[in-house]
From TrEMBL:
Superkingdom of origin: Eukaryota
GO term, biological process aspect, one: proteolysis
Compartments reported by the entry: Cell surface; Secreted
SUPFAM superfamilies the record matches: Complement control module/SCR domain (SSF57535), Trypsin-like serine proteases (SSF50494), vWA-like (SSF53300)
Residue pairs linked by disulfide bridges in the UniProt entry: C124-C151, C184-C211
Required cofactor names: Mn(2+); Mg(2+)
Protein name: C3/C5 convertase
Keyword Disulfide bond: yes
Keyword vocabulary terms for this entry: Disulfide bond, Glycoprotein, Hydrolase, Protease, Repeat, Secreted, Serine protease, Signal, Sushi
Signal peptide positions (record): 1-21
Record domain Peptidase S1: where: 384-713
One Gene Ontology term of the molecular function aspect: serine-type endopeptidase activity
Amino acid sequence: MECKQRLKWLMLAMICPLIAGAPSSMSKSDNSCPKENLNITGGSFVLSNGYSHGSLLKYICPYKYYPTVQSRLCQGEQWNPKPKIRKPAECKKITCPNPRVFINGEVIPFKDKYYVNDTTTYSCHSDYMFRGSAVRVCKPNGKWSGSTPICGRDSDHCPDPGVPPGSGREGNIFNIDDKVTYRCERPLTLIGSKVRVCQDGGQWSGTEPQCYADFTYDTAEEASEAFSSSLKSNLAVSQQFEQDDQQGKRISLDQGGKLDIYIAVDASDSIEPEDFENAKTTIKLLIEKISYYPVSPNYEILIFATDVTPIIQMRNFKLNKNERSLERIFEDLDKFTYDSKGGKTGTNIAKVYSEIYESMQIEKVNNAAAFNETQHIIILFTDGQANMGGNPKPKVDQIKHLVTKNDPSQDKKLVVKVKQYVLHPKYNITAKKHMGIQEYYEFDVALIQLEKPVKMTTNARPICIPCTKETNAALKLSESEGTCRKHEEILMSNELVEAAFTSDMDTDNSPKTIKRITIKLGKYRDACVEDAKKAKGINVENAREVVTDNFLCSGGTEPETDDVACKGESGGATYLNKKGRVIQVNQARRLALAYVYAPDPYTQAIRALDEHYGQPRQLALKELRAIMEMPAIRIGDGRGLDQYSLQALVGLLQSMGSEGLAELNCGSHVERLLEKLPHEQFCQFKRCMSSSTAGPLSYNLLDFSNWLQQEARCQPRRERTPQPVLTH
């Protein structure tokens, strides 16, 4: 495999720092560089222009190997870097960063080095909870598959941030304002946040660090996924244009704004043709992934070297219907080859920013109001090896000034009309009146479809629901990371979870009040539930008849006094503040159960859900795969059984018609899940099913889910925790 030179790419949201390189030394010379000592042990090399000035030598190694020196540039009769006689270039086996830094658990196998296709498995010591990937594989790009495995108690304010492979961490206390500091083993380079701080919302600042070797690179898929994850927080806005030929694109929220994306790709001589093609592939993957979201952003794509060549211009994209299809974008991008730039091969970053600035000026002159409502994204692919045309910073400052705008807040009442609603068929406020419970709200949930989408403003903002693509974006997770289980880990990993609700009891002219509460989980749950018997109108012996597993529990004076909801506020959302977004808790599970039991209004309900969730089939299958990859449950782990529950997944599968039914009735799914249970519980399930079914494999995921619920209730209370936001 030819070891790819990783492009250093730069992304700007609104305005971003720029690379200001050294002046280009592109002057021609007839002097050539020496031919001696250029060979590489175990590989070969290619030259862009022989041994003449400006020629780039690139080393090539077999698959699973990398060159100790990636390339050399002929400058002034010398190669840079200069060949070393005593230490010639060679092809070495690709390794992945050391996974043995894993703490509070075990990693198998224990080796000095881990090469491509080596597999590692992870497990936790007793009393620790596992998060991340239980099995990881060393990939040809020098990175581990999956996500960082973490074993933590999660008893502090923030969850254990883990120790990524190849790194070391200082700091083992994770309360508010506590810091953890990372470093990489030599000679690895730290990518991400060196220092992370535990924030009020229970999250860590910055991004999880990674340790890269010189030969580590991002695949086109990884790069596009990274861009997609970074952009997702902007993808809740709608666009002016929505085309029938762009399958899978829908407008779910009209926020009265647009998203304009400018993409520039370096095609100068210092960029190899293969790297240029990889950049184009990354762009296409990124645009395709964005197309799956309920928006259709506007694009401008530029190729630059000494001069700038527009592939797609923003004005044409907005005015010309044919310009806006994915097929047309990809076709135009493919037409431009590496050699299309001609003989002008410098790197003029300043000029490409000048072109973008002029394009943005045209948009502002054309419609200033729309321009001020637009979010502007600039993505630049470059290696930064040379920079002609002067310092690009003045142009960036001009762009910054151009997009700076004042957006005074306006407090307006929203009047919305309901097109239809689907009430939960089990909702009955008097269902337990005979038990001494005057008002019963377990199934107090409905699906509401509006006649027109709500226009978002600074005073009307959406609340994200877990297990949806919108929440995935808010949590800045990639598509591969974004499972319901991952949402649960991030949102509900601690035993005390800070949350809030909005009080509506103030006057019309005063702002709504944010009331603070603490959700009690784990060892705090039982006492919180028992306190429910003290509430007015409650006269029961068993508090769990009032606060069932479908409810979260808050209130009391420990660890601090919670705010109390007034009459009329109980229908509002309880939410967490994560990464500047508010995310509703518990609602996703109730929504899933809502359409599990809906017999006749199924069609309307699933259509409404489909508008919010995207494609339930993809969601269900992703959750199914995540469950199949879970580690085994240990004996007496009532918490594990609770989290292993499959109710919501079963609900999703039941909502999918014949496709879901096939997955639901797949006996092999149950057999794989049974392998994760302790032997005693495995036998208990078999005995239970043999007494109630006709054949040994006639049970399905629904049977298994129901049995799990019963088995979890039998666990000692000290081992149990409440069901998470969305169970599996």
